[in-house]
Prior knowledge:
Helices cover 34% and strands 26% of the residues. The protein is built from 18 helices and 27 strands. Helix 2 packs across helix 3 and helix 11 crosses helix 12. The longest helix is centred in the N-terminal third of the chain and has 17 residues, at 47-63.
Amino acid sequence: MLTKQWIDEMSSSGQWTxxxxxxxxxxxxxxxxxxxxxxxxxxxxxxxxxxKQVDDLxxxxxxxxxxxxxxVQIQLPNRREFVLSVLALERIGAVVNPVAPIFRSxxxxxxxxxxxxxxxxxxxxxxxxxLAAMHLDLRESACPWVQRVIVVPGESGNPVPADCMGWDDxxxxxxxxxxxxxxxxxxxxxxxxxxxxxxxxxxxGQPKGVMHTQNTMNAATDRxxxxxxxxxxxxxxxxxxAHQTGYLYGIRTAITAGGRVxxxxxxxxxxxxxxxxxxxxxxxxxxxxxxxxxxxxxGLADRDLSSFKAFVCAGATIPLPVLEQARDTLPxxxxxxxxxxEMGLATSGRRSDPFDKLATDGIAMKNNEVRxxxxxxxxxxxxEEGDLQYCGSLAFAGYxxxxxxxxxxxxxxxxxxxxxxxxxxxxxxxISGRTKDIVxxxxxxxxxxxxxxxxxxxxxxxxxxxxxxxxDRLGExxxxxxxTDGSQPSxxxxxxxxxxxxxxxxxxxxxxxxxxxxxxxxxxxxxxxKLRDLVTND
Length: 538
């Protein structure tokens, strides 16, 4: 939580460097010139070309009326325009609101209402869904504060809609601008100004707008490089750049390291293996299922993966048999990690760790702390389970919803993560459960209350609860437990209804259980832990 006392403490200790991402980028662009910065499915983009386009985009956004502290929403797949937009917007003091391309109007409208973006940068279509049309509809029906929709060419090849601005037109607007470099430099934001607001599912399933600054994000990037990949310059990212994993370690890491990053728009393990071999990828990070997928690739043993040094798997604990297979199959060190949108990766393994430590969820990043406490906030003995708390330089500035929500998540200077954990004698934690009411499907948070609120409007459903059901590959999937009017709706019927209500497909339940009654507490709350036991034993 950002206070003057905290700023002074972090700055005086050197944990915050007061640098700006654009300053890091500008210095590295001069040094790297024609070397590639981004490799995506459209080819390579050099540092020098990126620097030119960032200059044009900075001016272009200003000419459109974007000003310091204005929010601009970016809903793009993993491609160069995402990186360029971030650099240009942060340079002029605007606030970036990353939104994953899987989200649909039901989720985007809620985020937009909270963030109030003045402009949206999106793609014409992605995975056969017309994102540009969705944003135009939202602007007319629910989000009148959006003044501009900027469209990057995507899969469809269709012309830019009449009410939108094309990406090339935005670049041309900047090229024709008379704004000087000195004028742009005057807009340089402070290192503790908010430059990102990104949404995450909270304990109630409602989205919370997590705000970060240059200092908090640079600290996260620097600690990651220090602990995970101090000798790496070629990175890979398949997790969406609109999640904090992709945003921090798929954009900012490569810029800070002065290297290059290889993107996948859609996860494909066979393509990943090919990218490692072709581009000599050294480090990557993704959801835990990515690891098993990679090792299942046909002909993997015939690939030259010798460049691959570090693979961080987060979102769910790595099953021990998978970790053992990785040790015997891959040249890289597979490291666990635990983190949140609020602070990025807060714990991880280290490449020097003995194997038994890689089977945990890691140790705190340098100059950061985690601890395990009881209900009263008193640290428990090592080996005992309790609530996991965090404190350190990576912590977010606050929630967009305001001080009350922000302060409710802190106790005595420690952030309540909502996770349960056990710490060993050497400080390594093992996540043992969650107090948060969410399901994590393959590293992706499923906001269960949001889905429940939609399902309960189905005419056949009297009440419903979404709980996690164990899954061998994904860790868990969501299961809808429903109390009905006596009918027996099918899972297909319910997911069709969610589709009609424009709920993101990845949030749909993948299992269904109809019950005659719910187990309730004396106060009438559903006892979800009993439902989890019920569906686990199905």
